[in-house]
Amino acid sequence: MRVMGVDPGLTRCGLSVIESGKGRHVIALDVDVVRTPADAPLQKRLLAISDAAEYWMDTHRPDVIAIERVFSNQNANTAMGTGQAGGVIALAAAKRDIDVHFHTPSEVKAAVTGNGRADKAQVTTMVTKILELQQKPTPADAADALALAICHCWRAPMIARMAAAEAMAAEQRRKYQAKLKAAR
Q: Which pLDDT tens digit goes with each residue over 166-179?
């Protein structure tokens, strides 16, 4: 499975692509950070992020996109910008019929480090070890994008099993309700 990890942000948006192998083996294919100037108009910044993400999707052909979910943030402007950047990337993926999954920062940290409250240095160190990189990815947005992709690779089988179980439960509920209706 090829996963594009996205750490959305208006000033710095981390993009990565990894491929999963057997078990928990993952290989980094590419990583970069899209930067936009803080003084540029919002629509121009979002367009630059969208253009870069679309180029990555068309070049790397990911099977799925893993985007960091804005869970909570003390700064409303930062949260809005992060949400907007993630939104334009999700839209670009939808136009290409690529599945999108959102993961909270604590889910990503727990998957990569075993600790949902790990700091950025711990995440970067573990990403470097997991992917067997020669040097640590910088800036932190690049490491976070790789961590998102790793998290999704490792969680995808569980996500698929949960979706199948939910579909089965919905089908059983539908059959049961039809049976009840027929008995009336």
A: 999 999 999 999 99
* Predicted confidence (pLDDT) per residue in 113-126, tens digit: 999 999 999 999 99
Q: Does the structure show a pLDDT above 90 at 184?
A: no
Residue 144 among known ligand-binding residues = no
Domain count, the chain: 1
Q: Which entry of 63, 68, 132, 171 is annotated as an active-site residue?
A: 68
Beta bridge partners of 27: 19
Please give the distance of CA 145 from its chain centroid, rounded to a whole number: 7
Could you tell me the CATH number of the domain that includes residue 21? 3.30.420.10
The pLDDT of residue 98 is: 98
Decide: helix, strand or coil at residue 68: strand
Determine whether 7 is an active site residue.
yes
Whether 68 sits among the annotated catalytic residues: the reply is yes
> Measured between alpha carbons, how far is residue 79 from residues 61, 68, 83, 84 in Å?
28, 12, 6, 9
Structural domain boundaries enclosing 164: 2-183
DSSP assigned state of 19 = E
Residue 10 class from Cβ within 10 Å (0-12 exposed, 13-18 middle, 19+ buried)?
Answer: buried
Count H helices and E strands in the chain, helices first: 5, 5
